[in-house]
Amino acid sequence: MSNLLAETLRKLRAEKGISQRDLAERLYVNRSTVARWENGSRLPDAAMVTRLSECLGVDANTLLGIVEASERSPIVIMVDDRKIVLTGGLPVLEEVMPNATVVGFTRPSEAVEYARANHVALAFLDIELGRMSGFDLCRTLLDINPHTNVVYLTAYVEYSFDAWGTGASGFMLKPITPEGVRRQLKNLRHPFLPEGVRE
Question: Most buried residue, 7, 29, 115, 179, by most Cβ within 10 Å?
Fold first, then answer.
């Protein structure tokens, strides 16, 4: 099960300065129920999500969207205009994240269209993509879904300085490796599915 909702609930509760016991009392549930939501072993139902949103001061639709995303396998995309890079990189992502749906694109426009129709948890983006740069694609993906994690994948280390101002989670030098992907997964802005990562 995805830990996207678990991470979100823990973060929101901590920001409000509320203990698990306090939240449980406000929701009229056992503290163990809150603990299970926060460790990812159980999901709250739609009615409880509405009550959670009121207690934590967040939009109910936002939490419902995260619950929906938590119920299915996370989607990971890779965008590179060179097919050979995708051919080598996609199997690495599938090896490290066997529970994820991994999809590759050579055209940024196709990746954007896909992201509009699907909840993308993580995107690995080349920076030089033709007319649209990886930086522009990152901004577009984050406009579609602010919870998408973006990791740049490039052969040019000098891009790293520009990468940090775009809201991305990380930066990797090519070629993509299992060890490099695992390192990036530990530093995501919006963590997901740590139990689905192969060491």
Answer: 115
Structural domain tally of the chain? 2
Q: What is the DSSP string of the chain?
A: --SHHHHHHHHHHHHHT--HHHHHHHHTS-HHHHHHHHHTS----HHHHHHHHHHHT--HHHHHHHHHHHTSPPEEEEE-S-HHHHHHHHHHHHHH-TTSEEEEESSHHHHHHHHHHS-EEEEEE-S--TTS-HHHHHHHHHHH-TT-EEEEEES-GGGHHHHGGGT-SEEEESSP-HHHHHHHHTT-SS---GGG---
Q: Is 146 a domain residue?
A: yes
Residue ending a domain, choose from 70, 104, 123: 70
Q: What is the pLDDT of residues 132-142, one digit of tens each?
A: 899 999 999 99
CATH number of the domain that residue 113 is part of: 3.40.50.2300
Domain containing 126 equals 75-191
pLDDT in tens, 34-82: 988 888 767 787 788 888 999 999 888 888 877 776 666 788 999 999 9
Name the region of 6 (left: φ>0; alpha: ψ -120 to 50; beta: rest).
Answer: alpha
